[in-house]
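Example 3.
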Amino acid sequence: MANRPMLEIVSLEKRFGTNTILKKIDLKVAEGELVFVIGPSGSGKSTMLRCCNRLEEPTSGDIIVDGRNIMAGTRRDLDSMRLQIGMVFQGFHLYPHMTVLRNVTLAQRKALKRTKAEADARAIDMLEQVGMAHKADAYPGELSGGQQQRVAIARSLALDPKVMLFDEPTSALDPELVGSVLKVMKDLKSKGMTMVVVSHEMGFARETADRVVFMDGGVVVEQGTPEEIFGAPKAERTRAFLSRVSG
Amino acid sequence: MDIFIDQFFNIEIMRKSLPLLFKGLWMTLQLCSAVILLGLIGGLFVALGNMSERRWLRWISIAYTDLFRALPPLVLLIFIYAGLPFAGINISPFAAVVIAFLLNNSSYYAEVYRAGLISVAKGQWEAAQSTGLSPAQTLIHVVLPQAVRNILPDLLSNTVEVVKLTSLASVISLSELLYNAGMARSVTYNASPLVLAALFYLVLLWPLVRLVSHFQRRLAA
């Protein structure tokens, strides 16, 4: 991983009142790297992810995407920088009143100011990439959870982000639908996308992640290759967590 | 029986009062358009203020909705029409009615909007903003269409109330439908123009009321 850093989290802190959720987190993600974040619930991993595009406002610290600090600048700067940071949510959050195609073209038209023809073409491309082009005219309510999540991924990809953040992308899915979403994510990785994934799919992490980060109590306890973390965790807390999730 | 029919359903008198009533209807429609349109716009802004992260904005909009929902619209109307001239502000009866009912109705619209905005999941805001849409774009393209769909029956119900409310303008002699009907009655010593006016209101409002029920059923389904 000699690549330049695409996403840098610098001494990120997040407090809610007197409750400190994130304690001076530092994390660098290189271009094309897939960083997989694990940890018990309440460890702050989702909060960290949501701080990366300021859906959650950091209390202090910096978030640097491809050399630009998203903590600096105006509200409008933030909107334009969010275009470079794709995000996929546990609950998909497709727009239920729009067709799949319009879900994928909306931000292209309004935020990137692409023409309708450009946006449509790009949307169809992305929908093909996630295997959903045949449902372009359907409404989200007519799709399965796995299909909705793949459309949500296409919606983000259509904006040509530099980093993709996945916040428990398969946790709301029926087990038989998880595979289709993970496959799309694996394709994305092989195409060189920089990705940060918060998830419990340890099998996927073993197979696809470049690096696994274990968080607990608002700090990064340990990080390393999947072999290191899953095979020979150094910290006691990591061992305890892994033995719990592997049953 | 003949006296009853002559007093309330006198076709000849109705026919004669028709031009005056149409004039009144036209005024009522103008009042309604102004109050409804401005109320729908103003109510949205008040609702947004109510949900703002800025505390002072929240307080202002809460004070606004509390005050103008608690004050009877007729009191508000008389206060504005008869009271403002003493403060050196002279406004036309039309403007007085629009202002008074706007203050009242935008408060009700605001409460309806607020319920609608709350009904849209927070994830919709987050998803839209994560794709680089501005807060205004998110509201216009993502949140508002869903909110309005959820509150359509309530918005329409409130609109029906506005139309009925405008009849109060007769109190300050604005020549809207009810006032003109009253004029025709006092000239002819016959109540038939009032019956005709009631019919006008019915024709105006019955489709709206039907529509409210239709949307309510559709939302319940």
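Chain B has one domain: 21-220. The radius of gyration of chain B is 21 Å.
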